[in-house]
Amino acid sequence: MHRPLAITDDQDLLDDLLRIAAAAGVEMDVAHAADHARPYWTRAPLVVVGGDLADALAAVSPPPRQNVLLVTRVRDDPDMWRRCVAVGAQAVLELPQEERLLVEELGELADPVTRSGTVVCVAGGRGGAGATVLSASLALTASRAGARTLLIDADPLGGGIDVVLGQEEATGARWPDIVGREGRVSFAALQDALPTFGELTVLSWHRGEPADIPREAMRAVLDAARRGCDLVVVDLPRTVGEGEAEALSRATATLVVVQADVRGTLAAAQTLALLRRHTGDLRAVIRAGTLEPDVVATALDLPCAGLVPELRGLVETLDRGDPPPLGRTPLGRFCSELLSELAP
To answer: Cα–Cα 20 to 30 A to 186, which of 144, 201, 262, 293?
Structure first.
């Protein structure tokens, strides 16, 4: 793979560009004169032209090409846009104010879009409805079928979704290690940092002081996951903060687990009032109770995505440190059928 090209003889600017490239996870070729850029001009995936050599580059008339940026450390230079047109650049970036934009442009080269992950959020209509178990079961089912999957625990008061998987002792980062993250992050770097089991990567909470998930951190994680995953499952709390709102806004579908009784239905109606502010495609996953599933779905004005099967001894299974029983079990078949609709 060819490397991006930096064209500048300004050592301070070059130092900035190399530092930014390192942050994006790429290496750059460097031309210290306009003539030296000729061998790299057409093959470099991205060309970054320093303002100091823009006129010299225009004078040698390189062939037109896409993906050229003009960068400068001089603010509000009225002549810079003339130079931008002269070298055929698509934009002028002033450093350090627009460093993040350059990191993102370079990051596309290090972490190109290889997949387009479907984002599925799962919320409980009330506490104890089983949303976390369903989230973990969907993620496990998808990953065991060969889909690269990220399971995100967005509930800081849930005790950690890694416990449901029987992986609470697994080494790797948890949310407190990620919450300060913003801007672009590659999925490869995320996967290296987080506990990963085959095709399943897990971002869970620790068992310490709970905290909110900043919108920027959730956005960075989801952006990386959508580039590198087939499926992203987000286990939501029953409150909606900034991070949860970000996940909901990106969801292909949001599943609401509803206990089919009067209290469960009333609680789910209140939960839906919050969720509907942030997302459009909401579906009920119903647990058997005293009410008929179609009555619950009609009362909530939601399509029914299915009736989740009850499993005897599930609590004991989880307490032993075993994940939910899937495969050919009723829960495994239910998850496979549901995933075939949500993320074929």
So the answer is: 144
